[in-house]
Design goal:
Layout lengths: L1 H10 L6 H6 L7 H10 L7 H8 L3 H13 L4 E5 L5 E5 L1 H15 L6 H9 L5 H12 L4 H13 L5 H13 L5 H13 L17
Antiparallel strand pairs: 1-2
């Protein structure tokens, strides 16, 4: 297949969009469909027999490939009215899909901290909740620490911001800033021996 593409490029002056070569797999195109597309970039009129001859592909295969490209909304076969009706290739849909593909690569969807809260809570945040989370960020709590507090709250079955605020406040008092700090604090609490219960006996009022 690579050889046929090179032959096309050498034997004709065809300008192939780099985006097409880079993204044809994302458009779910096969190598054979790509070859047909590259060929069609250099022609206007639709002539299946000439395509078959130039590419050394069976006419039935050419028609099948064209049908595939049409069903994938990559190209259209339009009819130009005149003294003689002529069929011509319309590749506007292909270019539109390439633009969409390129834009999606340059502008990936960014999941914000608010999105993560809504996902964990299973609902949309209220305006007040947006303000509270924003205030945490303004008070120099890192997003990592806020999300760790969210995780801790959900684990304890308390999916509300008041509980998370208490967690963040306690962590700040103890100097906890990272996930590793949290692990160290939990290990310290586990190793800490339980407080001995002091027996409070009132010797002064002991009965004889």
């Amino acid at each position: 297949m690579t050889g046929k593409i090179l032959e096309l490029l050498k034997n004709g002056h065809i300008l192939v969009p780099m985006a097409l070569l880079q993204n044809y797999k994302k458009l779910k195109l096969t190598d054979k469909e790509l070859i047909i597309l590259i060929y069609l970039l250099g022609v206007n009129e639709f002539d299946p027999e000439k395509i078959s001859k130039d590419l050394n592909i069976k006419l039935s295969d050419v028609l099948k490939l064209i049908d595939n490209l049409t069903s994938k909304d990559i190209l259209k076969i339009s009819v130009k009215s005149g003294k003689v009706c002529e069929e011509y290739i319309d590749l506007d849909e292909m270019y539109n899909k390439l633009v969409i593909s390129m834009m999606s690569e340059k502008e990936p969807t960014k999941t914000t901290i608010y999105d993560k809260f809504e996902k964990e809570f299973g609902r949309t945040l209220s305006p007040m909740e947006f303000e509270i989370i924003g205030a945490w960020i303004d008070n120099n709590y890192t997003e990592e620490l806020i999300l760790l507090a969210l995780k801790e709250a959900v684990y304890n079955g308390a999916s509300n911001l008041r509980y998370i605020d208490k967690i963040l406040s306690e962590w700040r008092k103890k100097g906890i800033k990272t996930e590793n700090d949290i692990k160290i604090e939990k290990e310290r609490r586990i190793k800490q021996p339980p407080k001995k219960e002091v027996f409070d006996y009132d010797w002064l009022n002991e009965n004889d």
